Fold this sequence. Notes:
- This protein is α/β, with parallel strands linked by helices.
- Helix content is 32%, strand content 28%.
- It is built from 6 helices and 10 strands; from the N terminus they run E-E-E-H-E-E-H-E-H-H-H-E-H-E-E-E.
- A 6-stranded mixed beta sheet has the order 6-7-8-3-9-10, with helices on both faces. A 4-stranded antiparallel beta sheet has the order 2-1-4-5, covered by helices on one side.
- 36% of the residues are buried.
- The structure holds adenosine-5'-diphosphate (ADP) and magnesium ion.
- Adenosine-5'-diphosphate (ADP) is lined by residues 11, 13, 15, 17, 35, 37-43.
- Belongs to the ABC transporter superfamily.
- This is Cell division ATP-binding protein FtsE.
- Part of the ABC transporter FtsEX involved in cellular division. Important for assembly or stability of the septal ring.
Amino acid sequence: MIELKNVSKVYPNGTIALDKVNLKFNKGDFVILMGESGAGKTTLLKIIRGDEEPTEGTVLFEGVDIQRYNRTSLRRKIGFAFQDLTLIDDRTVFDNVSLPMQFRGASFREIHNKVEAVLSEVRLREKMYKLVKELSYGEKQRVSIARALIYEPIVLLLDEPTGNLDVDTARAVLNFVEVLNERGTTVIMSTHHLIEFGNKPKGIIKIRKGRIVGKEYV
Ligand SMILES: Nc1ncnc2c1ncn2[C@@H]1O[C@H](COP(=O)(O)OP(=O)(O)O)[C@@H](O)[C@H]1O
Ligand SMILES: [Mg+2]
C-alpha cells in the first residue's frame, strides 16, 4: 500500500537525511524502523505522510504519487503521533484529541462521541477533562496516539512512541498498538532501542545514516 522508490532527502543546509531508500509496506504490516538518533527515522515518517517532499524519488500511496494525493484524505488515512507529542499543555485531553475535528467544523455531538470512543481505546476515558499538564508522560503518549486515531486511519505512524517511557509503560503502550494492528491498522513505528512485546512477528528495518542497512523479522 506504501512504496518508496529511490527516495532521497537532502535538507537545504546540505544534510543528506535519506539516501536512495527503497521500501514497501503492505496492508496489516507492523514494521519497526530502527536506528540511532540522526539516522533519518523522523524524516522517513514525514515523507511517508507527505509532510516532507523527497529531493529525489517517489512515494506511492495506494498506487498514487503521494505528492498528488489529496492532502485532506491523506491526513485522515495516515495518522501520525509525533516524537515531541505536540500537545497543548494548558488544554484538556478532550481539547487536544478533538482539535483535528474542531478544525473541520464537526458537530459537538459527533466530536464528543468520537473522542470518548478513542479515549476508551487508549484507556484514558476518565482523564477526558484533565489538563494535559496534569498527566504522566505515558498518559500523554497515549493522548497523542488517541489524537492520531481520531479519523480511524488505515496507517498509523508512531515516531519513537516509547522514547521517554519506562519499560513497563512502554510495553503497555506497545501492546495497545499491537491490538490496533491486529484489528487491521498498518503500523510503522520508529525506535532507537528495541523493546520486546506481544506475540506477533514484526518486521524490523534498520536505518543508518539515511540508508537501509538491514531487514529482518523478530
Ligand atoms: N529540518 C531539518 N533541516 C536540516 N537538517 C535536518 C532537518 N531535520 C533533520 N535534519 C537532519 O537530518 C538527519 C536525519 O534526521 P532525523 O530524520 O530527524 O533522524 P532521526 O529521527 O533518526 O533522529 C540528521 O542529521 C538531522 O540533523
Ligand atoms: Mg527522530
